[in-house]
Amino acid sequence: MDKNLTSFIDIASDSDFSIHNLPYGIFSETEDGKRRAGVAIGEHVLDLSALETEGLLTLEGGPYFDQPTLNPFIESGRDNWATARKTIQTLLSTNSKDLGDNQNLQKQALFKQADVTMHLPVHVPGYTDFYSSKEHATNVGTIFRDPNNALLPNWKEMPVGYNGRASTVIVSGTDVVRPSGQLKPHADKRPIFSPCQRLDFELETAFIVGQPNKIGQPIAMENAWDHIFGMVLLNDWSARDIQKWEYVPLGPFNAKTFASEISPWIVTLDALEPFKTSCPTQDPEPLSYLSEKKADNSFDITLSVELLPKNADSVTVLCETNFKYMYWSMAQQLTHHTITGCKVEVGDLMGSGTISGPTPDTFGSMLELAWNATKPVELSNGETRTFIEDGDTVIMKGHAIKDDIRVGFGEVRGKILPALEFNFSD
Ligand code: MN
Fold this sequence. Notes:
The protein is α+β, with helices and mostly antiparallel strands. It is built from 10 helices and 26 strands. The longest helix is centred in the N-terminal third of the chain and has 15 residues, at 78-92. Manganese (II) ion binds at residues 129, 202, 204, 236, 351, 353-354.
């Protein structure tokens, strides 16, 4: 990483989108306008399709960026990822003649982020959510089962996960209707059909699969990192009361399938490279197929959640945590996912699981922050919350900093709308 690298574009020192980041997204100038690929730089989006048209960003097998998803570019492989990053970084640098000195091209290719609409960056063929924060799994086990045996016996042996619903992955800014379903508020009575009364967020990241495997051929640990393109923030919206009633014996179903909301910019592993750190020590040592030789298998990424109630003029910060608390690495998650021969596809979304840290201010869900509704959380406007209410907006942010260099994710923001009204004859 060249610390002295600067851009001809003015970028605030606290911007997530420095010249060291260059995350990829899909944007359009109007809501229904033509979708194409861009990178975020400061407060701007750089239109990559315009650079391709000008002949300034020529990749093997391209063009790739005049497309409504990033899948074709990602699928084209790691050599193209590296060439694209280097070329874009050079074009945006202070001494760039091709773009920095070309006002006409800047007019065509640079847009204010505030003026464009962001879309899902990839077509997501499959979505899996893991459960890889030990603190989160321990908290949930303590709340719902047994404080003395909070972690189930399999948890430290493998990255536990479930297959989610790719069709309900949505991009930041999409409103979410409160789900309705079966709840069982009274142990000795039958369930009821009702709007969810315990709506929650889950603070997560997710990685985007960059290279597929063949069915029947697992991805080995030593190759797993090469199959990962980048990361996004993920709010895995969860209906706790639906979940509690439905999850035995097959795990989450309707409680998790109404909205999984992601940030629009994919931050590449290349951009996150300077912020590497290690996962917590794994004890017992994993079985050999999950054994990871490299020590720097995680990233130091600060994550936070803010709540903006309806009509409030300021947010309340609910928690601040860090990706480095994750017990299992992304490579271990991917290897375990494919160990039976399961095929993963380019664009597959792999959620980390709720990321909680060791102290109560680092818990990544309302379930934990308000400890199963027993400790209401106070908001800056005087209200309290045990779960999320209609009109609430939840905002998640994430960034990494080292030596004054900042690489961030921006945000994932979602607002809860009231439940639908159902008219059943029974
Ligand atoms: Mn989750």
